[in-house]
Fold these 2 entries.
Entry 1:
Amino acid sequence: MNAKTIFDLPLMDLLAFVKRCCHEGLHDTLVDLRDHSLRRIQDDGTGGQLILTEHVLGLIRRIQRHLAYEENTFFPLIEVGGHQGSGLSLIDDLINDHAQIIAAMQMIRAMTRDFEITQKMTSDCVSYYKKLVELERLLANHAQIENQILYPMLQKIS
Ligand SMILES: [Fe+2]
Ligand SMILES: [Fe+2]
């Protein structure tokens, strides 16, 4: 690949980059976090943390729906040029979806006092919070690359 930055990539290469670098890691983290959430509920009901865990599971389902829509509908549409014309309106829906997902993540951040780790926490809880921090980072990366690079490129070449 001769391009200097992802801004220089041709559309199909950019799409491949998004699938590989934005989606694959996110899928792995979601599966980890889902397993961890279910384990927390099963182990001890997680006490005061139950509401947090339920919120996280809801967010995971929501992100998985978003990724599935992109991978099964939107990206294949781009590959055949179908995002042009009326297909461009789908971009607004996806940007809106990103905003709602980030807002749900911010709510989880607030519930955890900015993912604060205290001495009273079990090691399981510490590792759960660290995974939430990782999810937040991957989500921000995902939204940034799609909102600021992929979608503008689609709008420009339509
Ligand atoms: Fe995506
Ligand atoms: Fe997305």
Entry 2:
Amino acid sequence: MHQRGSVAPSSRARNCISRRRLTQNPDLDLGPEPTRLPVVRWDAKLYPLLLFFALLLLSQPIPFSHRQHAAGGLRCVSCHNPRGASAHMGFPPASLCMGCHRTIAAPKPAVRELARLAAQQQPIRWERVYELPDWVWFSHRRHAKTPCSKCHGPVEQRDELTAEVEISMKFCRSCHQQNKARAECGTCHESK
Ligand code: HEC
Ligand code: HEC
Ligand code: HEC
Ligand code: HEC
Ligand code: HEC
């Protein structure tokens, strides 16, 4: 004949019992809150590391300053021109940069890194700032009369670009309505 307490409980039930027993036993000194302290310490250690990787991911491969280059008299079109069917502005090839930087500021670390990337003859992988989903149709060529700053802010004053103009559907459509440009859905959501 089995006694009540001698029936072997399933492992899950065993866990429940032992945890309940532990927390209910007044004689047991479980110490301070078991989970909080170590978690806080671990996080604090992790923050600089996370920050480091975030900066690494978000920063440009070369610290390029629009302000510095605009001050030197370079115009936007020297480096950005609408090309192809999608009329992307694109980014200048490293060879264009090297046209000046073979001599200008050549010993500077950032320019040496530029020379190294240029020698690989592959496009520099710039971190994108403005990017639409590919199901929205947009063309820079169709906006040739609109100043760049309407959609990108005062780029020539910036050492580092951020998406300071929020390009939303409302932003696009309200300008179209104001300027009596086409504003029905198919204008921007149709493959052309
Ligand atoms: C010397 C070449 C050069 C000139 C001149 C130049 N740019 Fe750029 N532009 C770049 C490079 C390189 C990048 C990529 C690095 C970055 O985002 O800062 C870039 C990035 C951008 C971007 C972000 C695009 C994206 O979505 O990632 C915008 C917007 C832009 N440029 C606008 C302008 C405007 C407006 C002007 C004129 C006021 C201008 N640029 C002049 C080289 C140039
Ligand atoms: C009407 C708004 C508008 C104007 C005006 C405008 N842009 Fe843009 N620009 C955009 C949008 C939207 C994107 C993102 C396009 C995409 O992801 O397809 C973009 C992207 C870019 C890029 C990244 C490469 C690319 O083409 O996707 C560069 C560089 C750029 N713009 C430069 C310029 C320059 C230089 C001017 C002025 C000559 C200018 N833009 C004028 C809205 C504008
Ligand atoms: C027309 C000539 C010209 C072109 C083209 C040009 N730059 Fe420059 N760049 C300059 C000048 C001038 C300076 C300022 C140098 C100084 O103050 O010592 C500069 C400064 C720089 C610096 C800062 C160097 C430092 O640490 O002081 C970097 C990085 C740079 N350019 C990258 C680029 C990149 C990337 C491109 C191509 C997208 C490019 N440049 C295209 C002329 C040019
Ligand atoms: C600052 C005002 C302004 C903003 C912002 C703007 N547009 Fe436009 N857009 C215009 C004007 C004006 C035209 C008509 C240009 C013409 O007919 O020469 C136009 C034309 C177009 C066309 C061509 C329409 C046709 O007639 O076939 C498309 C597509 C377009 N815009 C998409 C967009 C998208 C997508 C955005 C947002 C990312 C945007 N636009 C933001 C002013 C603007
Ligand atoms: C002038 C250009 C333009 C016109 C006209 C336009 N859209 Fe959009 N639409 C956009 C852009 C740009 C985005 C992407 C916004 C983003 O990435 O945040 C978008 C996004 C969307 C989305 C995704 C959800 C969202 O809000 O981000 C839907 C759905 C949509 N549009 C439907 C429509 C419908 C329906 C119409 C007609 C009533 C319309 N659009 C007219 C430019 C336009």
